[in-house]
Amino acid sequence: MTVPGDPARFTALSRGLAAGVEERDGLIGLVLLGSASDEAAHRRDEWSDHDFFALIADGRGQEVRPDLTWLPDQDRLAVTAREGEIGFVAVYDDGHVFEFAFSEAAELEGAVAGEATVVVDDDRGTTADLIARARAHAAARDRFDPVNDAALVFVKLLLGAGRARRGEVLNAGQFVRGAAVVHLVRAIRGRFGERSTLRRDIIDPLRRFERDFPEWGARIAEATSAPVEDAARELYALAREVLEPGWDAFPVRAADAVARRLGF
Q: How far is CA 56 from CA 23, 65, 104, 225, in A?
């Protein structure tokens, strides 16, 4: 068995994917995304997986999609599973992961992409065109509205703490540890844009947040490890401490209203 994170294994799997797409009738394109792409290869480590789009010829999705025999190293596949209509995941016996969309180009019309390498394409450039649009979509979405996100932090904390007090702890955790954290991270990135470096992920603001904001990232992580209402209280305090000083647009009335309602 190969060592997890072996660069040679990663490269071999990339080549195997390309060969599988080129040889499988009905497949027309392959795009390696994120750290699987050439431009982000420097970020790979032992936990890097393969994210990619595999494109099916127009009109052949239903016919082709059930067949995953084009994936490399079939004898080493531990499991494959679907995530939605066109999303798939595969795990190999050494723990290496594939996460991929397997679809016709039209089914990925609203897709977003950052770092990407087109490995296989058809004569019309269908895959390259798709990635050009996906990059444009990502660039358009790569905007932060810290005023709106800051307000939503307090809304989600209020809803989450309320659900927790009602006894709906699992659902409360989604609000507090999920939605509130996402909005808090977005608000921080928007409020302190000069500290969001090129290492950040333009699609997922949580990716590599700890590298740009190590102290606040550590404190958010610590807060989310607490029981849900304690987590809400800590995230509330952190949001005010980090965002409010020197910022006239901070949603003071919203924050004060949540504090009164929850007794923070």
A: 13, 8, 5, 42
Interatomic CA distance for residues 255 and 262, integer angstroms: 11
Based on the fold, state whether residues 15 and 137 are members of the same structural domain.
yes
Assess whether 152 and 228 both reside in one domain: yes
Q: Which of 81, 111, 141 is the last residue of a domain?
A: 141
**Strand pairing partners for 56?**
27, 104
Helix residue ranges per DSSP H, the chain: 7-23, 61-64, 126-141, 146-166, 169-173, 181-191, 209-212, 214-224, 228-243, 252-262
Place of tokens 């844009």: 193
Phi, psi of 167, rounded to the nearest 5 degrees:
100, 5
pLDDT tens digit sequence for 205-232: 878 899 889 999 999 999 999 999 999 9
What tens digit of pLDDT does each residue of 112-155 get?
Answer: 888 899 999 999 999 999 999 998 887 776 678 999 999 999 99
Q: What pTM was computed for the model?
A: 0.76
Q: Which residue among 77, 111, 141 closes a domain?
A: 141
